[in-house]
Amino acid sequence: MFFLDDLLLRALGVSLPGLDLIWTLEQIQKVAYKTYYNPEKIKNQIKETRLLYEFGELEREEYERKNSELMHKLELANKAEEMDLGSRLDLLGRI
Fold this sequence. Notes:
69% of the residues lie in helices and 0% in strands. By secondary structure, the protein is mostly helical. The protein has a domain at 37-95. Helix 3 runs antiparallel to helix 4 (60-83).
């Protein structure tokens, strides 16, 4: 019910930040993307994966799979940061 009210108010051009459900969901999404696609965090995960492999904690196949995923994620994060996509990050593809 509240979602429909928000859509109706949004269609009329009325928006109450903080009370608008859609606005709140958009803010949550922005924070989630910034957390998930943080280049520094991803670089640290790459380093951690490399160390685990070097210390024998990971098999070669597992290391290569994880490293490939993290490199792809880092590429997406860098593109998103360059383009300042914010909530349009899903156009690049999700992991």
